[in-house]
Design brief:
The protein has helices spanning 67-73, 86-98, 120-126, 133-136, 148-158, 182-194, 206-215, 232-243, 252-261, 274-287, 306-317, 323-328, 332-337; strands at 2-11, 16-25, 28-33, 43-46, 50-54, 56-61, 76-81, 104-107, 163-166, 199-202, 219-220, 247-249, 291-292, 354-358, 371-376, 379-380. It has 383 residues and is of the alpha/beta class. It is globular. Bound molecules: zinc ion.
Length: 383
């Protein structure tokens, strides 16, 4: 089956690529060429006045039943899950493998935290509603650097695609929580690296970010949110992040949602942190740190799919990103930093995960809300 989207403005994952014809065959993009150059196809899609983008990638979510279908409706074709219990993860993974009407998934599986550390208080609050008590018992903790390799081994056996560390001493929550020691964080990072896994750290204060950097992580799952917007310490820390080659997932929509709702069952920071989060983001952008768009989507807020549209709007309105930078932060950049070589860009030979919208999101990202069509692994979604 051959599909041609003709006369469409293309954003290729990195930049605007002009008006093209894009041809799909089965699950792949097979040609991107001048209008009319590709010949006819079984299915013709009018791209005039519209923009074709790589399917979006949300670099920070938490997947629950229904999340992957909701994400795909908004053109998010891949979700990077930052914590999921083993049995639900197996279910979601099977769904994503067998069906094309849900987003694809990569996941950390169980995260590494200290006994009683963040987010065990959230897990306790959600057990019996969103979380099955029988599945919650599978949570594993690490207190001894000697056990780091075993912990990573167990995650690999469960199918984790990367390792998530939580380095959060509770100061931003106004409490005092047990936290992974620097020795354990370092040992886990080394063990994960040795096993070929990337390591992403949850750290929401500048001090916890320093611990994460010292451990040698690849990425941060949030911006920090404890320094005033123009604190020079943010600029210095952003330079350290850059010098270590670490990427950062934005999650502005998450901080915004916490401010809007107050601290709820699914939040890990108190309200009022949004300006600090924006300040950290601007410092990181100024330093040239790779920024990946992520939402921390849950069944609460931000929502799967539409939350990523909101994230990109905030990145451009408050974070200072140009629309093309924001779009790259949700396509080519997360694919690159998570090793997803088959997606995140529009080019021959890559997976046909595509989003067609009315208008031009490279001028104004709110155009992403005007979804016309979504293809997942070449399968056009019913609308
Ligand atoms: Zn999260």
């Amino acid at each position: 089956m051959r599909t041609r989207i003709h006369g469409v403005r293309v954003f290729d994952g990195e930049r605007g690529a002009g008006v093209q014809d894009v041809v799909l065959e089965d699950d792949l993009v097979v040609a991107v060429c001048a209008p009319g150059a590709a010949g006819a196809a079984d299915v013709e899609v009018d791209g005039r006045g519209r923009t074709l983008l790589p399917g979006l990638i949300d670099a920070h979510t938490h997947v629950f039943d229904g999340s992957l279908a909701e994400a795909l409706r908004h053109g998010v074709t891949t979700e990077l899950d930052m914590f999921c219990l083993p049995r639900p993860l197996a279910r979601h993974r099977q769904l994503a493998a067998e069906r094309d009407d849900v987003a694809d998934l990569r996941s950390a599986g169980l995260l590494a935290t200290a006994p009683g550390g963040h987010p065990t208080q959230l897990i306790a609050a959600l057990t019996g509603t969103l979380l099955d008590p029988a599945e919650v018992t599978e949570i594993d903790f690490v207190t001894d650097p000697e056990r780091a390799a075993d912990f990573v081994e167990a995650r690999l056996a469960e199918g984790s695609d990367f390792l998530k560390l939580v380095i959060d001493d509770g100061t931003v929550h106004g409490t005092d929580l047990p936290v992974l020691s620097p020795a354990v964080a370092g040992a886990l990072t080394s063990a994960a690296r040795a096993a070929g896994l990337r390591v992403i750290a949850h750290a929401v204060t500048a001090a916890d970010v320093v611990t994460a950097l010292d451990a040698g992580v690849d990425g941060l799952a949030h911006v920090w949110a404890d320094l005033a917007p123009h604190d020079p310490a943010s600029v210095r820390l952003a330079r350290c992040v850059r010098d270590q080659g670490v990427f950062v997932v934005s999650t502005l929509a998450y901080f915004e949602a916490v401010d809007a709702q107050g601290s709820g069952a699914a939040s890990c920071v108190p309200p009022g942190r949004y300006p600090a989060a924006v300040g950290a983001l601007r410092a990181l952008r100024g330093a040239g740190v790779p920024l990946l768009a992520g939402t921390d989507a849950t069944p609460f807020a931000p929502a799967h799919g539409s939350g990523l549209h909101r994230e990109l709007a905030l990145l451009t309105q408050h974070g200072g990103l140009r629309p093309e930078e924001a779009l790259a932060a949700a396509t080519a950049l997360p694919a690159h930093h998570f090793g997803l070589a088959d997606r995140g860009r529009i080019a021959p030979g890559l997976r046909a995960d595509l989003l067609l919208v009315e208008g031009d999101p490279t001028e104004e990202v709110s155009a992403l809300g005007a979804v016309v069509d979504v293809w997942r692994r070449g399968r056009r979604q019913a609308r």
